[in-house]
Amino acid sequence: MAKKTYDLLFKLLLIGDSGVGKTCVLFRFSDDAFNTTFISTIGIDFKIKTVELQGKKIKLQIWDTAGQERFHTITTSYYRGAMGIMLVYDITNAKSFENISKWLRNIDEHANEDVERMLLGNKCDMEDKRVVPKAKGEQIAREHGIRFFETSAKANINIEKAFLTLAEDILRKTPVKEPNSENVDISSGGGVTGWKSKCCS
Amino acid sequence: MDQSVAIQETLATEEDCITSDRGHFETLVKAAVRTWHHKVAAFCFICVIVCACSVRLFIYTHRRMAITADDVSLEDIFPVSRHFEVVEVSSPDELAILGADTRIRVSFQEEVLEVSLPFGSHSRFFLGELNKAWSDVCKSSSHVPKFEWLHKHSKTTGGQAVIKQSLTPLGAKMTKLSKQTGLSQRLHTPDAVAHSPAHQGTRAGPEIAARAVQNEWERYGTCLGEGGAGREDRNDMVRSSSHTPANKAQMLSIPQFGLRDNLIRCELLKNEDQYTHLQDFSFFLATYNVNGQAPKESLAPWLSCSSSPPDVYCVGFQELDLSKEAFFFNDTPREPEWMRAVSEALHPDAKYALVKLVRLVGIMLMFYVKREHAGFISEVEAETVGTGIMGRMGNKGAVAIRFRFHNTDVCVVSSHLAAHIEEFERRNQDYRDICSRLQFRLLDPGCPPLAIMKHNVVLWLGDLNYRISDLDVDHVKNLITKKDFETLHNYDQLKRQMDEEAVFEGFVEGDIQFQPTYKYDTGSDDWDTSEKCRAPAWCDRILWRGKNIKQSTYQSHMTLKTSDHKPVSSLLQIGIKVVNEEAYKKKFEEIVRCIDKMENECIPSVTLSRRELHFQDVKYMEHQTESLTLFNDGQVPCQFEFIQKLDEPTYSKPWLTANPPKGFLAQGAQVDIDLEVFVNRSTAPDLNIGLEHIEDILVLHLERGKDYFLSVSGNYLASCYGTPISTLCQLREPIRDMPLPAVRALTKGGESPEGGDKPLGIPKEIWMMVDHLFRNAIKQEDLFQQPGLRSEFQEIRDYLDTGVPDSLPGSNHSVAEALLLFLESLPEPVVPYSFYQQCLDCYASATQSKKVISMLPQCHKNVFDYLAAFLRELLKNSDHNNLDVNILATIFAALLLRSPTKQDLAEKRKTQEFFQHFLVQDLS
């Protein structure tokens, strides 16, 4: 029986051009809701959501960043410490797709080396206004060896899947050892499950 | 027995033993450098000792019961640092048995020690504390633990006599410390103690302690050597006490388990009926006072009397061992003997696992469960309470085991209450003592200790010792023969006391349909024939408390003849809350969703009245303020602060300040924040030429919450203030009339844009002010000594920068001050920085000084000469203007000869003397 409410904490970051729907993607995932009014994020916001993966309860702390160009220098300083980054573009906005390589460079320069990346082509419900073919998204994702989903926060397409996949990818890289674990099951006879110093390992 | 008193006595006043546990070490895997007294298996105490910020694990061996410091000896010290580790090891050759000892391996670099700790809450608590201490140490990794206090343990090795004493063959008395000195030490202040020779004398310990300490120093040394790089990394991460967006990430990632866990637990408990259902399980409860005897016959008739195998066995014993050894050292061979006898007599149709055994002197309780149920047993804890001699000793009292079976918390108590027919009040008292003193410490350190009565089901068995009173022996025996137990019940003290609600309140006992179980001649079914000829009594009883419990059987077992008591058993059907995994998961997820939502709602949040602040026409040395309002629209109070951006030294550009830059905002409260721009001489030069703009983004950070970006914009009006002399010499028009790129080109390249136009000899701005003063203020009283008006300065500055109005405004004093401010604002002083040292070197010689000035760049030299000539003119009128060489040298040397670095008083004096040469000389 579960004793603790979560075993791991993953920090995720949403980046991408202004207006591609980062805040909506987050809002859909965290509150399962959608708001049509556009309020530009001017700063750094975050929400949490607890998910269960492979029997582990994982608390996701998802940071939403300002997409406006003038804030880029500042937002890059939030990359450090993120374990996963979702790079979002808008399939109805060619410019937001063209900027993907710039964003990827940003990640290379400022994020942790082992950060898990993912590309999202948002607003896929607006097929009639599409200007970025899905294949192009797939191609750039393949070139950079990262996962790709087309999503719609409005129509709730692939949002949950994208977050869970990203969390799973991070989990796969996370060492089994959990130094903070206080979980003790009865078969261990009670006591420590094994904690050791990081610099000795 | 509590060893903490004994251990604390061996410690210095500032050292504190937070927790200790009784352990048993079997293997010294690698302890080559160690000289332990006990090289073979021995009992030991393992203690967490703290002093200031550092933590140590002390290992003591001990003699039997540890009552004073004489009984324990310090064997080893492990520093609890990042190189320290404790891991639980499972026994290599034995199956992991539920309730088995916890074996841990303690290691520090090469040193390894394995210790077995008794299973149970105390060990769990101990390991919890150790774990906590260890994580604290690791968390504060930037802070290097202080080991000075361990010096004391090394200093204590001085006394020769004591070392000799320490070489006694057994080596058991090593770290000797008399109780008396221990007490007297505490009367001193810690400082006095540390240095007093008496203290050192009394603390004089064994050689072994010295070695242990020395080892520790060596170990720590190595640790420093290799740990250096790692620590730097961490320091880098910690960086500074102020926040930056980057280390905010770290702050946010500190998990806060406690509150969430408790909330979820609480919600789960509230909704338990939604995901559990009741299922009956059979509990076989048994109690036997064995009168100190070893097992002589099979216990199967007692324990295997039910037709089908019960799910759970709880078997209690009393008077397991009546020997002095058992009483004093809590050590008896009877324990394994009876355990074996019980294990062999359990129902043959099922396999059982011993989950837990607990014993206090002669009171023992064993808890077995059918193998298939073992996975549903959790949170097993055991505790004991002595109520015997002095109200504390273990000859009477209780042992108890608590556990969770599926979702039901069960507590089983085996007790032996006070004896003698007239002592029923004493027995009531024992019961109350057991209830109040027996507390289970749970794994989760956040949970308060758990009392017996807090359990869903309490099963109480044992020799409760209540007798049949107010009837003579023969009458009792007569009623027994007639099997008139009902009449007899009326004289049973326990029934009476329970009816009076004096004891066992809320407990139920089944009908007694068996004859009293006490007292028989051992080996027979005959009533006591001894001198005392005790009246028969139902001493041995089984009671329960809780819902959904039905008794199937309640009987004694006459065939067993080992003791003067007969064993009793009862089979109970207990409704246990079994979890429906699907429903549980659903409920759990629902709660987690809900708590996630709450947590999201509780993230501090504010609204800002504006996000963009514009400063129009910012001028040199003129304050401009824009305000915004912060309103706490979140659900919690919040702490806000402007934080610096990565790689920037301050939260804003140097010309901008926020007031207040941080603060606390209650829920629903608001605060006005003023952003103020002020351009001074250090920020003006770059703004003048457009290298820098009135542009910034401030990060307003909420503690544990969001960050808000504030955009600051504006325009700066270029000014001659803060513009180099060389540039000004090229400008024939007011600076504001010149295009910005032209000014920038001039400042950078120095070439005249008008191509061919000869530069001015001196900046016209200086000429305007000096000429004005020369014509109007040469006799002005206290010129340069009285301040001007700020508003007039602003007018003068605007006049110099724009040429409007037609003539220089302001009073003489204001113009004089504007001149001084002008000289002060020059990015490169009149005597350029590169000449400063030369001036200092030759200040004593007038000729040399003049030579230095003659080497200045032309425009600087012109300004210098011009000002000096003007000042000499002023001095000619000193009768009116009260000026003298000293005053002028003091004022102007500081402006003309500025040091590129910080100036000391001697240098200052030299610059004044240097400048005086130019004030006294004749123009010739």
From TrEMBL, chain A:
Pfam families: Ras (PF00071). GO terms for molecular function: G protein activity; GTP binding. GO terms for biological process: protein transport. Its EC number is 3.6.5.2. One of its GO terms (cellular component) is endosome membrane. It is found in: Cytoplasmic vesicle membrane; Cytoplasmic vesicle, Phagosome membrane; Endosome membrane. The keyword Isomerase does not apply. This is small monomeric GTPase. It comes from Perca flavescens.
